[in-house]
Amino acid sequence: MTGESEIVSLVNISAEKWPPRQRTYFGSLDVRSPEPGEPYAVTMIRGCSGVMDLGDKRTMEYRITAREINSDSGEGSFHGVFVAAGAAPTKTELADARRRLEEFQRRLVAAADLEWERTKNPMFITDLERRAARQLGLEKPWLYDAKPLAECPVCAEKIKHGVAVCRSCGAILDREKAAQYGLVPAEKTVKNRQDAGKQQPEAGK
Ligand SMILES: [Zn+2]
Known about the structure:
Blueprint: E1 7-12, H1 20-23, E2 41-46, H2 58-69, E3 81-83, H3 91-119, H4 127-135, E4 150-151, E5 158-159, H5 175-180, H6 190-204
Antiparallel strand pairs: 1-2, 1-3, 4-5
The protein binds zinc ion (ZN).
The site of zinc ion (ZN) has 8 residues, from loops.
């Protein structure tokens, strides 16, 4: 049994763009997000042997894959993507997905509320929690505060958004900005460089 022509419908009811880390479960596959006004988006995925090869039960593979997608935020998490039994989702499937998504979002908001009560520090509120509150249309004191920390792509240290140089490892994260403050030689201002280059040979004569 090859099952190579088997097509499975992955249904997304969330308008969110998926964080890249969730996409890694799929390799290069992008899960479509609904356009404004669309209740859901379907991504057709082909049944091929690959990452989730668990034997000869193909449908099982995809159910596991879908569970993997939703497992990022811990037990019972649901990001609005599920595998439809047929080519298109049924009303029941959609209603069930909406209920699960809302439950998950409410749990996220509750967790953020607790965190806020404990620390009053917006840095501890995750992007996921903020999005959940926005989607539920809730007003929260932790919602509009400072951005959470970013991660240095070199040393993975938590850093502020928009910094030019990583405080921890010294990696240059924004060359233009770093150059502006004289932390690195300007690279983008090619004209200045050429001018400087012209002067040098003359000076050397
Ligand atoms: Zn760093």
